[in-house]
Amino acid sequence: MSDVKDDNDWPPQIERRDFLFVSTGMMAAVGAAAAAWPFIDSMNPSADVQALATTEVDLEPIAVGERVTVIWRSQPVFIDRRTPEQIVQANSDDDSPDLVDPATDASRVQEPEWLIVVGVCTHLGCVPLGQREGDQRGEWGGWFCPCHGSHYDTSGRIRRGPAPRNLVVPPYELRDDGTVLIG
Ligand code: FES
Q: Phi/psi at 80 (nearest 5 deg)?
């Protein structure tokens, strides 16, 4: 797959490699729902809903500096295994006056290496660029939403443009087996 951004490729497509993660997570969720189905009558009705509302992702194959997109509740979620430089940058900007929606980097991550955010621009809902090699990442090296020019930093915080809020951090659990459960 080319590393060069194709301007005609909009909206951005989920990469084949990324799709494998998506498939794995979604199959796990669907499998859990199917297994639970015969027992629904004797269970809390929210149990099947809960299974479908989570996405499990194996983090092991994601290299430092890599970004992967998965789907959770029909939305893209960006998983970014940040480099030490990106982490330092994010922390050093904690007190920057241009933070539109002030938040420390530490408040947005459970472990500094893993930034996990919903990949939906908080302006009007476009999917920002920055997940693929060659994508524009904006002036702060995070994500860039070309719809109306919003720049997000390496913590997913909005720094410039019309978006009013930072990229949303979804509920998630980093597990000891190297997976993350989103939802
Ligand atoms: S939807 Fe992202 S800047 Fe408008």
A: -120, 115
